[in-house]
């Protein structure tokens, strides 16, 4: 379906909806929401912020007292016209500050040794807020500063967390009606990319009930996304690692012959098991998020890890820091992940962000298996097909040096949707040089690679990723 044909009904539907919604507000009052915090400065940043930042909570499970925390950064371009993007990060239960500070947000940490003082921040010139307002949400409950008053509120999964996000959006847009007329997109990467198509479909089906769902969706984007289908997500590692010279011809041939489907992740015979062990040992020699970077330690504290370093902030910490991450070498790409732990656990930072006292004792970058979580979306590919067949726009992008979810698997399932090609495989350019390669299908889906990108492509190729995003979100060809 042609993008221009789709855009006109969406514009008319949005106008009709806005009228219905505003009239409904005359006769009913929305649930009261916590007052947001307008943040003009942040600890570690020198001077006032060069963008508008709002933080706040939205209740998504009143029975258990569950609230999702958000960071809303207004577009640095034209916020009254630019799209609004909801962004979800990967997991398990990781904070959306990963995306804000390390990928697509307007701030980054200054990479320097931690000395006990608050880490310093700097402006990031390749933020996606150059082209859109971004709503960063800590989801699911327990990620980042999102919390639940009752333990039962932490027992969520793919589906329930998605439904809570839909409720979050309903309430957020009710309190931010100035953005109802803006184009709206949902985006995410890694595990978040698995949630995005399900949430997008859920939102698109709910828009018919105007007074309950005060927002319309124009499309979605996912980066190096998981689908939930392990044979597809991880099975593509074998040809990827072979093509990159990490495994030999002989090992590749053995796996292809003796490990059917995703058999190498769950070997069913001795030859496959032996080959899988060799594969694992060779894969351990490289950095999975980006195979050309130095291999580094995982910089998120693991619960009940008695070996974690016990370093105390010189500024007053928010509480006793029991689960501090191990310190990575300075040459590591993820060295600033270590700094984030101390920045977020400072009382000064929490006061600036408007964090509710007692809601989160110790902030963790990720929760790895310490709380229940149901991976109940087994395969998200059908949701991609459902949404795009209705004409919604979609961008699927992959850093081409990622060994976590290699681009080969993503390219494969995009092609399996069996939509006709409208723009053949070609290079896309930045400053006269190829920045990656792309192909566009008749269902308004564009697939693009980022040359030199890793699992979180904007972390490794920020300038190229901004160029890709800016063009796509503006409905321009890459």
TrEMBL record:
Cite a single GO MF annotation. Answer: acyltransferase activity, transferring groups other than amino-acyl groups
Q: Which SUPFAM superfamilies match?
A: alpha/beta-Hydrolases
Keyword annotations of the record: Disulfide bond, Glycoprotein, Signal
Q: Which residues form the signal peptide?
A: 1-32
- What is any one GO biological process for this UniProt entry? secondary metabolic process
Coiled coil location = none
Q: Which family is annotated?
A: Belongs to the peptidase S10 family.
Q: What is this protein called?
A: Serine carboxypeptidase-like 19
Q: Supply the source organism for this entry.
A: Brachypodium distachyon (Purple false brome)
Tell me the organism's taxonomic lineage: Eukaryota, Viridiplantae, Streptophyta, Embryophyta, Tracheophyta
């Amino acid at each position: 379906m042609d993008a221009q044909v789709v855009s006109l009904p969406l514009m008319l539907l949005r106008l009709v909806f806005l009228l219905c919604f505003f009239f409904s507000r005359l006769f009913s009052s929305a649930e009261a929401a916590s007052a947001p915090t307008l943040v003009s400065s942040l600890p570690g940043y020198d001077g006032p912020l060069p963008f508008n930042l709002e933080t706040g909570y939205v209740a998504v499970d009143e029975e258990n007292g569950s609230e999702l925390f958000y960071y809303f950064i207004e577009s640095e371009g034209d916020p009254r016209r630019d799209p609004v993007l909801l962004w979800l990060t990967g997991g398990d239960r990781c904070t959306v500050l990963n995306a804000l500070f390390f990928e697509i947000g307007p701030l980054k940490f200054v990479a320097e040794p931690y000395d006990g003082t608050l880490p310093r921040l700097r402006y990031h010139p390749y933020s996606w807020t150059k082209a859109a307002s971004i709503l960063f949400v800590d989801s699911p409950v327990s990620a980042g500063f999102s919390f639940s008053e009752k333990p039962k509120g932490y027992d969520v999964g793919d589906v329930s967390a998605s439904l809570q996000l839909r409720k979050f959006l309903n309430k957020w847009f009710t309190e931010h009606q100035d953005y109802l007329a803006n184009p709206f997109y949902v985006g995410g990467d890694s595990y978040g990319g698995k949630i995005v198509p399900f949430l997008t479909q859920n939102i698109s089906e709910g828009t018919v009930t105007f007074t309950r769902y005060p927002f319309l969706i124009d499309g979605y984007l996912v980066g190096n996304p998981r689908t939930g289908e392990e044979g597809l997500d991880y099975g593509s590692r074998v040809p990827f690692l072979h093509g990159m010279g990490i495994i030999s011809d002989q090992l590749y041939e053995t796996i292809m012959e003796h490990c059917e489907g995703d058999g190498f992740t769950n070997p069913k015979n001795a030859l496959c098991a032996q080959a899988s062990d060799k594969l694992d040992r060779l894969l351990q020699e490289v950095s999975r998020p980006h195979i050309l970077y130095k291999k580094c330690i995982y910089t998120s504290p693991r619960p009940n890890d008695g070996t974690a370093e016990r370093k105390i902030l010189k500024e007053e910490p928010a509480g006793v820091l029991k689960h501090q991450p191990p310190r990575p070498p300075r040459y590591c790409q993820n060295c600033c992940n270590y700094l984030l732990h101390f920045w977020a656990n400072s009382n000064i930072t929490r006061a600036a962000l408007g964090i509710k006292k007692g809601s989160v004792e110790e902030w963790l970058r990720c929760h790895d298996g310490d709380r229940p979580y149901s991976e109940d979306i087994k395969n998200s590919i059908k949701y991609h097909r459902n949404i795009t067949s209705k004409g919604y726009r979609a961008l699927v992008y992959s850093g081409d040096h990622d060994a976590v979810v290699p681009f080969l698997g993503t390219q494969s399932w995009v092609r399996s949707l069996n939509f006709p090609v409208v723009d053949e495989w070609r290079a896309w350019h930045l400053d006269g040089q190829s920045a990656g390669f792309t192909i566009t299908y008749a269902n308004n889906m564009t697939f693009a690679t980022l040359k030199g990108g890793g699992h979180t492509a904007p972390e490794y190729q920020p300038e190229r990723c901004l160029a890709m995003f800016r063009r796509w979100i503006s409905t321009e060809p890459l």
